[in-house]
Design goal:
homodimer, alpha/beta
Chain lengths: 245, 245
């Protein structure tokens, strides 16, 4: 087992059987960190044990979180597995390219993960706007909905193909790390409070879309810790300026 | 949906739920031809419907066969999905290379398939000796046993990546087709009858291994229809010769 890992995050999974099948699929390809956000039937759940087929360690170490941001807070890079072309400005990667990128990022000591939506309706825009990019698994357009564990096993398989291979591209960040999702979440909260206060987000109906679009701009920017600190400084500085005038 | 197809053959599958999950995984990547050899709980089976998640056409068209040879008789190329390194002289391909090869073969108008063993013990040597080569999915050596539908979804996914792409290698067969598995099966039967008669296979205990080894030689040879006819002519000719002396 390699030290580098890919975290799998399931958002509001419905069936404990699927959680078990996901655990098995992960361990088949050397992944061990599984996290849940609001599993419908609670956690732990006995129904996950049989389909895990012996991947008990994964089940025992599962963490459940109340929010997506809490579940991904410590990660530096998170992609969202989604078949739908959401109405957002986002990078969309093939599984091959996405996992190559995430494996390369992990090899540089960064923590990476992939978000999966639930069995009924996939990922919501709010969760996707917390992610850097989308992974689109190229399925039959007439029958595109994958079983949750099948989507995870394809992801884990592509990860395993790339994790021990020399990267074809590297993103150099110098002496600073990539920002964690928590850093970024705090920056968004900070920025949005100020934009509410200044009236930029005053249009109630358009507000959710505007917030998502702003977040997506910064998601695509591949920000480092240092850059997030700079951005927060910029916001603080602008706010002081406007308060003085 | 492309005209070229990859046939999936499940040998003695135990759970109808898995058959349904396999049907869903196949249709997700445009595959439609699923065949069963001696399904434990019979076929059709209502328990397959829910996990198929709407892939009803696949379920309705499933054919069940009493023997592996009957199930693959009309196919020109069959690979076996197997994690075990069997004690046979066989080509072993990665999923990527195997499905590229099978997709290329299908693009030349040949019928291709992959054999999967059952949930408990995978493929037996007898079935593997009916196949040209092995596909080894590179799993965690400490937890290598894949769920049956997970193995199929990885295979179908790799197929879909290659089927509409220009091949990197082509095996030219001139004006003749690749041999079908039935042609090859008849040749083996013919040869083995003669080898029994002449005493070459007289050692009862060693006979199964010897038969497998002989079959594997011809499996690796990528035989055309014409070449199988020639080989049968050679056997007939040798037998006549020995009967005359």
């Amino acid at each position: 087992m390699t030290q580098t890992n890919l975290t799998i995050i399931l958002i509001e999974p419905q069936l404990a059987q699927n959680i078990g099948a996901v655990a098995r699929a992960m361990l088949n390809f050397g992944l061990t960190d599984l996290r849940l956000v609001n599993p419908r039937d609670g956690w732990p759940n006995q129904d996950a044990i049989a389909p895990a087929a012996g991947a008990d360690k994964i089940l025992e170490n599962i963490q459940a979180f109340p929010t997506t941001l809490a579940a991904i807070g410590d990660l530096n890079r998170v992609f969202a597995a989604s078949a739908r072309t959401h109405d957002m400005v986002k990078y969309i990667y093939s599984p091959h390219a996405a996992l190559e990128y995430l494996a390369t990022t992990a090899q540089q000591g960064q923590k990476v993960g992939v978000l999966f939506g639930n069995e009924r309706c996939g990922l919501q825009n709010e969760d996707i706007s917390l992610c850097e990019a989308l992974i689109k698994i190229p399925t039959n357009p007439e029958f595109s909905s994958l079983n949750l564990a099948h989507a995870v096993v394809l992801t884990a398989y592509e990860w395993s193909l790339h994790i021990n291979v020399s990267p074809s591209q590297i993103f150099r960040t110098g002496t600073t790390n990539l920002a964690t999702r928590e850093d970024l979440g705090k920056f968004f909260a900070h920025l949005e409070i100020e934009l509410d206060r200044t009236g930029f987000l005053r249009h109630k109906k358009k507000r959710p879309t505007m917030v998502r679009n702003i977040r997506n701009i910064f998601q695509r920017a591949n920000l480092t810790e240092q850059e997030v600190r700079s951005l927060r400084g910029i916001v603080r500085s602008l706010v002081r300026e406007s308060q003085n005038t």
